[in-house]
Amino acid sequence: MSLRRHTALVLAAIALVSTAAATAPADAVQDQKPVHPQIAAKPYMGWSSWSLQSTNYPGVNPDGPGSFISEKNILTQANALATKLKPYGYEYINIDAGWQDGGDEYGRPVANLKRFPRGMKAVGDDIHKLGLKFGIYTVVGLGMDVYRDGNTPIYDAPGCFTRDIVYPDLRKTNGWDAAYKINYASPCAQKYADSIARLFASWGVDFIKMDGVGPGSWKGAPDDPNHNNTEDVEAWWRAVQNAGRPMMYTLSWSLSHRYADVWKQNSNGWRIDTDVECYCDTIVKWDSSVKQRWWDVAQWIDDAGPGHWNNLDAVNVGVGAMDGLTDAERQSYMTFWAINSAPLFAGDDLTKLDAYGLKLLTNREVIAINQSGNPARPLNQDQLQQVWYAQNADGSTTVALFNLADSPATVTGRFDQLGIGGKATVRDIWADTNTRNVSGQVSAALPAHGSKLYKITPGNVPVSIPADLTATDVSRTSVSLNWRPSAGATSYRVFANGKQVATSTKPGTVVGGLQPQTQYTFTVQGVKYGRTSDASAGITLYTSKSGGPVRYEAEAPTSTLTGDAGVSGCTLCSGGSKIGNIGYGATVTLNDITVPATGTYLVKIAYTDGDTSRQSMLTVNGTDSYWVNYRGLGDNDWGTPQTTYLPMKLTAGANSIKVSNPNGYIADIDWITV
């Protein structure tokens, strides 16, 4: 759930899900815990109810917002999934917000009997009879309705009451401020989490989604401790591990990346973004908010892996009329989820899957890419034509081309940038075609928001080319370089202008001893037992001039502001100020950025971003434009600066760099250095 939901729908969901989730204790304590397969060893696959609950599509919620959710409708979808999608690996039926109606005498959740007259265990039993798994929803914190003046006893915890697990001032928490924050200094607090986890286990629950968790969801900055739920997550993780039943435990929504280590250690996955649903007459729209995932997932890529995955939300590609997308957008949507090893859970009405939607959801090669658990990454994001890739254990490379622009464009993936040497067999996965002896690149003319998905398998190459050579910092006399590991390589040789200047045993190094204001072209070769790969794609840039790098403050008198863009205070920013409110018609242009020679320079940008991520265009001298992805903190912290880098072509003399985005707000800008 997110703050974007319609008010009536939010209130309905909160009313029905007001308590933190629960479980009944097992009959006997086992001396030894049973051994179960690893939970979330691969991204899970299934279906979730929220997409249908959230939509205004005709006939889906005939009795008001969220009214879709009921025992009858859930089991109808379960039967459809068992028939149509289970053979392809889809197995979870996840019941989202709306199933609950208050709590029992111990403050543990109870079902809304008007919607689920037989209770949740009976529904779970019916789901299990289909060979499927049963998921349930809860929110973080203590539901206000079960506080009951602090007199509600905690199950199986003599002497513990709800007054013992909250703060005296009854401070509120979660994404909607709809619960009391739990004080885990009290041992009674862990007992409460334990009681709910065991109740869920007694119902046969296989999957728990905990919503409203912070830091994240635009709350929980360092000066906002009431929305820091890391202690809740840790307590719930312990509760789930000791509940007597294997259950996947996932977090929502739009979690803050600065706490990624906590999420990895104490959950099986996390949402990286707001809801994918548009809360409109369809389920989703490309601009609201499918396309934002391309930007928001970037900082999370290395956090995904067995046991915990980046959750991009539901994949709604199965029913064209209901989805609100073109066929090209539906393919891109499914492709992006698959290559990022995101959980694949549909949100459509599975009884109405159209032929194209069924084809997208059941392509075994695409599913295999997803289930390999090898998330892709972008070669760069400085344009709306993007190449994403993943190097596979068998020596092949998964490559996806995306055109995120609103008009047709050609997108090209160069083999030397992708780490592919020699000739290769290119498999177009969606088209089900193979092309042999391809060299140099893959390229496709794509419609607006279109995509291609390839598996590229080179011939027998002893050492692969280092992929994605990138400069990450520059000074007058040094350049920092990173690249992706080369298959088979035990070391790397680094070259500048054709001369070897460094050796590294890791995929990265700092090349020193360079001359100021000098242009260098860098390449890297992988080495194994004296055998070397072909050279990587080169990157060319200038070192900083003598006395550099030079910093240009965004709030300097020489900058040009338009619209509502203005100076705002920022204690941790350079000079105590930054430029904010940039976007739509508001822009800032930094002027008189001076370099002695025309060429490519590594521009460093300092910014603040409390959102999940924001993007802007940087336009140089009114001509060349680049896109920048500002990776956000996601917790509404707009006072902590971060930095990003971008190679840009500048002209000898004075340059201007305009920061803008005509279609959205961007990060606040502190300074730029060259």
Task: Give the structure's gist in a few sentences.
This is Alpha-galactosidase. The chain is of the alpha+beta class and 674 residues long.
Question: Could you characterize the architecture of this molecule?
Answer:
The protein is an alpha+beta fold and 674 residues long. It is 18% helix and 31% strand. The protein has 14 helices and 40 strands. The strands form eleven sheets. A six-stranded parallel sheet has the order 10-9-5-2-1-13. Strands 14-15-16-21-18-19 form a six-stranded antiparallel sheet, covered by helices on one side. Strands 24, 25, 27, 28 and 29 form a five-stranded antiparallel sheet that branches. A hairpin with a 4-residue loop joins strand 22 (467-474) and strand 23 (479-484). Helix 7 (230-241) runs parallel beside helix 8 and helix 11 packs parallel to helix 12. The longest helix is centred in the N-terminal third of the chain and has 16 residues, at 187-202. The chain starts with 6 loop residues before the first helix and ends with a strand. Residues 2-31 have low confidence and may be disordered.
List the helices and strands and how they pair.
Blueprint (H helix, E strand, L loop, with lengths): L6 H10 L28 E4 L1 H5 L16 H14 L7 E3 L5 E4 L5 E3 L7 H11 L3 E7 L2 E2 H4 L24 E2 L5 E2 L6 H16 L4 E5 L18 H12 L6 E4 L8 H7 L2 E3 L21 H4 L12 E3 L8 H4 L3 H13 L4 E3 L8 H7 L2 H8 L5 E2 L6 E7 L5 E7 L5 E6 H4 L5 E5 L4 E6 L2 E6 L4 E8 L8 E8 L4 E6 L6 E6 L2 E6 L3 E4 L7 E10 L2 E2 L6 E4 L8 E3 L6 E3 L3 E4 L7 E4 L6 E9 L3 E10 L4 E8 L3 E8 L10 E9 L2 E8 L7 E6 L1
Parallel strand pairs: 1-2, 1-13, 2-5, 5-9, 9-10, 11-12
Antiparallel strand pairs: 3-4, 6-8, 7-8, 14-15, 15-16, 16-21, 17-20, 18-19, 18-21, 22-23, 23-26, 24-25, 24-27, 27-28, 27-29, 30-40, 31-34, 32-33, 34-39, 35-38, 35-40, 36-37, 36-39
Helix pairs in contact: 6-7, 7-8, 11-12, 11-13
Enzyme class: hydrolase
Catalytic activity: Hydrolysis of terminal, non-reducing alpha-D-galactose residues in alpha-D-galactosides, including galactose oligosaccharides, galactomannans and galactolipids
Protein name: Alpha-galactosidase
